[in-house]
Amino acid sequence: MSEVYENAAVSLILADFAVADQLGKLQMVGGGLQLIGRDHNTGVSAAFALVVSLTFPPALFNEQYAFEVVLEDAAGNPLELAESAAVPGSRVMRFGQTLQIEEPNFRGSGVPRRALPTRSHVVLYFNTGLPLPPGRVLVWRARIDGESKPDWTVPFFVPAPPPAPVLG
To answer: Which among 76, 101, 129, 153 would be 20 to 30 A from 144, CA to CA?
Structure first.
């Protein structure tokens, strides 16, 4: 396990919309989603955002790490999505990149250097939705340097279509 993994604080939240600005401030609407709606005619979910907030102590400034989020089923297996216009050819929802822990820049504010941790946000906004399977609990999981902790997840549910009326 890496030092970055061991000292990271990670939290995930789902929202209707979210964006992080250049100053690191997070703007969110409808945060705390647990149900993600789905158009049962097209098989695609409503638009939503996944927000991953990462906090690191000053001792880790300038360290690099591998960051990843994966969509999983309730058993912890990567979820294979149906092919659609929103996700052509793709089957597993996995996003990853190498990031660096930057020292916060509070110049002119009187905050001493290395006094505050680095806090950053990774926002994935699915404005056209995803072809999520209905009637199942799904989980987004964050990983740092290939490792995850139990609380680095956010579960959610995609409702199935209502049952058809029974006539006769």
So the answer is: 129
What is the C-alpha separation between 95 and 146, in angstroms, rounded? 12
* Dist. CA 14–CA 53, nearest whole Å: 11
Question: Exposed, middle or buried, 63 (CB in 10 Å: 0-12/13-18/19+)?
Answer: middle
d(CA 29, CA 51): 11
Q: What is the pLDDT of residues 80-136, one digit of tens each?
A: 987 655 556 658 899 999 999 999 887 788 888 888 899 999 999 999 999 999 999
Query: Distance between CA 114 and CA 40 in Å, rounded?
Result: 51
Tell me how far CA of residue 138 lies from CA of 75, 152, 167, in angstroms: 9, 14, 33
